[in-house]
Amino acid sequence: MNNITLAPVQPDQPSHLMPVFGRQPISFVRGRGAYLYTEDGTEYFDALTGIAVCGLGHAHPVLAEAIADQAATLIHTSNLFEVPWQTAAAQKLAEVAGMEEIFFSNSGAESNEGAIKIARKFGHMQGIASPKIIVADRSFHGRTLATLSATGNKKVQDGFGPLVEGFIRVPFGDIEAIEEAAINHPDIVAILIEPIQGEGGVNTAPQGFSYLEEIRHICNQHNWLMMLDEVQTGNGRTGKYFAYQHTNIVPDVLTTAKGLGNGFPIGAVMTQGRGVGVLTAGNHGSTYSGTALGSRVVYTIIDIMQKENIVANAAEKGAYIVEQLRSQLADHQVTVRGFGLMIGIELPKDCGDLVNIARDEYKMIINVTAGNVVRLLPTLNITQEQADQLIERLVTMIKAYLA
Ligand SMILES: Cc1ncc(COP(=O)(O)O)c(C=O)c1O
């Protein structure tokens, strides 16, 4: 019973799955570290890691053992009871995130739903009947109704109106637009922003991370909550535990998911400063919030990240990869940007077909976002040898593609 092996899915095989995903015609049956394997044993370099999820790589032995042990001991009781692993995971996460209160969710979208609820309640506590949240163009915050309404991408919203109201949109990186919104809308209570826009094309603000410092200043002036969506940029991805730690400021609300669980579905909405104490008993919840199993996963991942110095490795290898790509592709009209191991290579033309070319010809899993940006999100514990292997395959592929 425990050793069932499934045959790979055939492209023409009938399926009961809702056809919401555009899937590639390949399935992987196992993974190890930075590599994925098909049933016939072909090895692929995974430079996507489940879209910034498996930062520790596939089948990390310490994490696998912790999951197996906890599954064989106790998976879930309910938040009707104390959950020691949840308390321990919250303590560890609070430490690395610089936050005070934590609610565990099950995904990035749910974490952002929590943040949106915090902002609205924060407004209502001050007598603001119709609280508004500033969000950015080209942002991505999730697929639930409130988070798709916050998202700055028409394709995500089309067909799902009426959208949730209460969002004011500004161009990413534009401080003047935020200041103008403050004048025109007295009922703004918060800003929700990604430090680096992932789905939108690995976009950093033109002024870099000082954008976040400017936002912090405006939030202080107007008594708004500064809320950062670090679903993708968190958990070591940019070379700091959270991307805001590249600056001297701290947000009031911080959301995360993805790398928090390395493939186990778990997220978190966290608060400090003005965000603390807004949600109280009965305001929020979820059956699966911080199960014993999910919490042990979070605890174990942070422990591994700390013991193996993984965030420092992400910073170092990320800087090396960016520098090598910039110099080796200097004559090819590409722009390489990003922090740590969240890297975008913008090409001078649309390049969606590079996903298939990378997979079939170079045995490399990558992603293309915003039409012409190759997005790299490799494992955070990538070795020097693997970094060189990745650079070599990318440079060869992009040179051939642009030739
Ligand atoms: C910045 C950001 N926020 C939210 C989400 C949504 O997370 P999830 O798919 O776990 O709901 C994503 C997913 O790509 C993301 O990149």
From TrEMBL:
Residues annotated for N(2)-acetyl-L-ornithine binding in this entry: 143, 286
Subunit-level organization: Homodimer.
HAMAP family reported for this sequence: ArgD_aminotrans_3 (MF_01107)
Assigned keywords, A-Z: Amino-acid biosynthesis, Aminotransferase, Arginine biosynthesis, Cytoplasm, Pyridoxal phosphate, Transferase
Record note on cofactor: Binds 1 pyridoxal phosphate per subunit.
Further information: May also have succinyldiaminopimelate aminotransferase activity, thus carrying out the corresponding step in lysine biosynthesis.
Reactions performed catalytically: N(2)-acetyl-L-ornithine + 2-oxoglutarate = N-acetyl-L-glutamate 5-semialdehyde + L-glutamate
Cofactor: pyridoxal 5'-phosphate
Ranges that cross the membrane: none
InterPro entries: AcOrn/SuccOrn_fam, Aminotrans_3, Aminotrans_3_PPA_site, Class-III_PLP-dep_AT, PyrdxlP-dep_Trfase, PyrdxlP-dep_Trfase_major, PyrdxlP-dep_Trfase_small
Subcellular location: Cytoplasm
Protein's UniProt keywords contain Cell division: no
Single GO term (MF): transaminase activity
Binding site for pyridoxal 5'-phosphate: 108-109, 140, 229-232, 287
Pathway terms, separated by semicolons: Amino-acid biosynthesis; L-arginine biosynthesis; N(2)-acetyl-L-ornithine from L-glutamate: step 4/4
Residues annotated with N6-(pyridoxal phosphate)lysine modification: 258
Protein name: Acetylornithine aminotransferase
EC number of this enzyme: 2.6.1.11
